[in-house]
Write a structure and sequence with these properties.
Layout (H helix, E strand, L loop, with lengths): L1 E2 L1 H7 L4 H8 L3 H9 L9 H7 L8 E2 L9 E5 L4 E5 L7 E2 H12 L2 H11 L13
Antiparallel strand pairs: 1-2, 3-4, 3-5
């Protein structure tokens, strides 16, 4: 999963300088994010999404171009996913397994970015009062 800031920024008609001004940053910071040289802190994601009038999840490319590739299963011995065909029940697509594998290898900051991006799509937890 990677930040797709440039495409959204351009779609919204912002220059790097204009977006930086809205976020109280330098245009160089925006450029570094767009080039993949650095990433915004997790706390910045809601501010970036608000400035670009989009949802946090829209800031990321999820790599779903692989969605129709063969499925994969987890091999604990090699600590990796391996493609299998036909797909057993509950197997992940190759794209999903690649993303999960990348998540597992990511540092804590990157994992938090992923969690924030996916939070709107997660099932809601039942409150203890409802029980």
């Amino acid at each position: 999963m990677e930040l797709d800031l440039r495409a959204i920024r351009k779609k919204q008609g912002f220059s790097q300088k204009a977006l930086a001004k809205k976020l109280f940053l330098t245009p160089q910071a925006i450029s570094r994010w767009e080039c993949g040289l650095s990433q915004p802190k997790a706390e910045m994601l809601p501010k970036i999404a608000e400035a670009l009038n989009c949802d946090i999840s829209e800031l990321f490319v999820l790599g779903m171009e692989d969605a129709n590739r063969p499925f994969a299963t987890w091999d604990p011995e090699s600590n990796r996913f391996h493609e299998v065909d036909p797909a057993p029940a509950g197997a992940l697509t190759a794209g999903e397994s690649r993303l999960l594998d990348a998540y597992r290898r990511a540092d804590e900051h990157t994992r938090r970015l992923v969690e924030l991006a996916l939070e709107p799509f997660a099932p809601q937890k039942e409150s203890s009062e409802a029980m």
